[in-house]
Amino acid sequence: MKVILEEAVREGAIRVDLAWDLFFEKPTIPEGHGGRLIPFTNWLWDELGKKAGNLNRNSSSELTLTIPSLSEQGMDFLLRLTSFWSNDVYLKKDGVLSENLWRKPVINVFDDTRLDGSERSLTRKREGYYTRFLMPLLGPGRTAFRVEVIENGESSARLHSHSEVDEYYLILEGSGTLRFNYKEIAVHRGDLIGKPTGPDDASQLIADQGETLRILDMEVWHDRPDNSKDLIHNPDFNEIFMRGRGWGALVPADALLNPSDFGQYYNESYKRTKDGGWVPSKARGHKKIRAKSSQ
């Protein structure tokens, strides 16, 4: 299948121009965290999946995407995504087709000096560390990969755990210390660190060996990242962060209670208080009210 990107509106075309205005409003892509590109990418991915694909026998020989006028970064990003769906990707202007603009699905995790348009946009520099966000340049999927360059004495993240994210770290360059729960482990170039979901293990990488630490941080979600809900525990801060669609809250970790009370008094009516205690309370559908102990 040949994929053609052009600003002219064609019947049956995928209307990227309308979606772009809805998601971005500007002709370029947002700089910094790649997460802001995910909703648009998911939409386009699903639309392309209806009309293209190596095993899609319903696809025609040619597919047109109506696009807005885009910056270099915006065009490069769009070409990267469409190149997953076709080996022949062209830009059409004034009736003339360009050369094949297919983009390779490759990013170099060591070289920060030769980044192309969309790669340059998906970077963020903060005091103590520099981050390159690789997704969704490599597709939307259920992963979030990023390269982090951490200066000596710094860390790019808190000690933290995830409830819905399998996380892995590959040490690309340098050495440092891995805090894993309450243990500290020396890590060096080539070390691959695993933090699967289940145990709620907490981890943190610190560059504390007198040199810069370069890592590849790889998150694997159970669903697309913007569709998943995740509990993040920060032990050093005594916080649990609830994030995800329909969530957005912060609670003290020491507010968690033993759940045995829930089962023991499930059929008795009461109301839980902020301090973890409870008071008798009448609830519809429950005849029995939990009584305070006389002791």
Percent of sequence in beta strands: 25-35%
**Rg calc:** 25 Å
The topology string of helices and strands comes to EEHHEHEEHEEEEEEEEEEEEEHEE
Low-confidence stretches: none
Number of strands: 20
CATH architecture of the largest domain: Sandwich
Report the principal-axis shape: flat
CATH third-level topology of the largest domain: Jelly Rolls
Q: In DSSP terms, counting alpha (H) and pi (I) runs of 4 or more, how many helices? A: 5
Can you tell me the number of structural domains? 2
Strand order of the largest sheet: 6-7-8-15-10-13
Taking the sheet with the most strands, its summary is: 6 strands, antiparallel
Q: How confident is the prediction overall: mean pLDDT?
A: 94
Helix percentage range: 10-25%
Structural class: alpha+beta
CATH class of the largest domain: Mainly Beta
Q: What's the CATH H-level homologous superfamily of the largest domain?
A: Jelly Rolls
